[in-house]
């Protein structure tokens, strides 16, 4: 479980923990934000295991969005004391601002649900 959390928060391959999952590091360019490698640069794991594999990440994304929006609404309404309309506007703005992070996070969580860490792919020594 610790290996999956490490893979998710470092954006590394779930199998080897070495290769990058996304082609680009954190970027504001929306066309590059969810681009992934076809295979892991280190262990050659095929990321797109089947056609449309990452459609399932929509379910993960939905859960993350609901959790984020519910938390933001409670903070805005209950803790800060904003009106209902202001709380809704705040929640919608946070949802839009966090959507790029949500897209990346949902994809890496989704693949980690199906691929486990394997230590035999960890850092191969070259002599």
Strand content: under 5%
Number of helices, where a helix is a run of at least 4 consecutive DSSP H or I residues:
3
Helix-and-strand structural type: mainly alpha
Alpha-carbon Rg, integer: 18 Å
Helix content: 40-55%
Low-confidence stretches: none
- Distance between the terminal alpha carbons, to the nearest Å? 32 Å
Mean of all residue-level pLDDT scores: 89
Give a short overview.
By secondary structure, the chain is mainly alpha-helical.
Describe how the helices and strands are arranged.
Blueprint (H helix, E strand, L loop, with lengths): L1 H9 L46 H24 L3 H29 L15
3D architecture notes:
- With 127 residues, the protein is an all-alpha fold.
- It has helices at residues 2-10, 57-80, 84-112.
- The relative contact order is 0.19.
- The model has no long low-confidence stretch (mean pLDDT 89).
Question: Any descriptors?
Answer:
single chain, 127 residues, mainly alpha
